[in-house]
Write a structure and sequence with these properties.
Length: 338
């Protein structure tokens, strides 16, 4: 029996990041794989020259866009397996013209990235609400008096946690919150009441969520509908001492309104994403004592990265075995993808 032919586009550096050696060996044994051994990423034109005859391609961080010329030459292509997160920027140009009409399966490993982002989110909730950064700075300054910080805030356990969007990451955060005895609320206009019930979470309006939550965490995709979704109206509803965490995209929050509210010192803000990114060196967000910023690192981590490779291989194996592909893109929701 002939093995399916797979064109593998990522470089060896990407492979080492996301595939455990035994997983990559299984991949090469199960399929007839043509590797990129150039040490650099191909151009789209180069992929177009090579793609004929291949049943599948594996893409990843740094691989070129799937262009019209690529698709015109892809005479045997049945699956695109993206060993990374969002695929919208990779295939958005050709999805409706070529991929959907041909019934080509597109897999994304964004669930694997979600494991890392969700873990980071929980850690950021705890770190920020418990003021660990402030206490560490206090000790480094040579002092040892916790009462100087006048801290009596609400921590994660027993809090009301408002979650913006039941995205892949948002749903993973909901799972990780279960041991912490929180009251979860969610705002997501696309989430049905039945889905909310199955997740064990209460749907509320956006303003209601901001008014009732002790901690708010943002997981909405960056699409036109979410641009500046959170503005002055919502931020002013936050109670004093509330923690706001954003690990999604900076564009979801109006940064001018956020800066104005952060200047009051009455809320705690944890940002892994900003607009612009990186922040200018003179940005006030870098200096405010109640604002903590990390350089877009919530998605990093060995656990999630290794799951990328495992899920990519599983997608290919399941597809060619005529089984459902976990992580297959639902093109009915493509416009709502990040």
């Amino acid at each position: 029996m002939n093995r399916p032919k797979i064109l593998y586009l990522p470089t060896s550096g990407h492979t080492e990041n996301v595939f455990k050696p035994e997983v990559f060996e299984r991949f090469r044994n199960r399929f007839d794989v043509t590797l990129n051994e150039t040490g650099t990423n191909y151009t789209s034109d180069r992929v177009a020259e090579m793609i004929a005859g291949f049943d599948g391609i594996v893409t990843g961080w740094g691989t070129p866009l799937i262009t019209e010329q690529v698709m015109q030459n892809a005479d045997a292509l049945r699956i695109i397996a993206h060993s990374a997160g969002s695929v919208k920027g990779l295939i958005g140009w050709v999805a409706q013209k070529y991929i959907v009409p041909r019934g080509i399966c597109v897999f994304s490993a964004n669930q694997a990235i979600a494991f890392n982002v969700a873990e980071s989110t929980i850690g950021m909730m705890i770190m920020t609400s418990r003021r660990w950064v402030d206490f560490i700075a206090h000790i480094r300054s040579g002092r040892w008096n916790r009462n100087e910080l006048h801290w009596k805030g609400q921590c994660l356990q027993g809090s009301v946690v408002g979650i913006i969007s039941a995205s892949t990451v948002g749903r993973e955060v909901i799972k990780l919150l279960k041991p912490f005895n929180v009251t979860p609320l969610i705002y997501d206009p696309y989430l049905s009441d039945w889905e909310a019930g199955s997740l064990g979470i209460k749907k509320v309006g956006l303003n209601d969520l901001f008014a009732k939550s002790d901690i708010v965490t943002v997981h909405a995709p960056s699409i036109p509908e979410t641009n500046n979704l959170i503005g002055a109206e919502q931020l002013q509803l936050l109670r004093d001492g509330t923690t706001l965490v954003n690990t999604s995209r900076g564009s979801v929050i109006d940064h001018d309104a956020l800066l104005a509210e952060a200047r009051t010192g009455r809320i705690l803000v944890m940002l892994d994403v900003t607009t612009p990114e990186p922040l200018p060196v003179d940005s006030e967000f870098r200096r405010l004592p109640n604002v903590f910023v990390t350089p877009h690192v919530s998605g990093t981590g060995n656990y999630g990265y290794s799951k990328i490779g495992e899920m990519t291989l599983a997608a290919l194996e399941d597809f060619f075995a005529d089984k459902p592909v976990v992580g297959a893109v639902n093109f009915g929701r493509f416009d709502r993808l990040a």
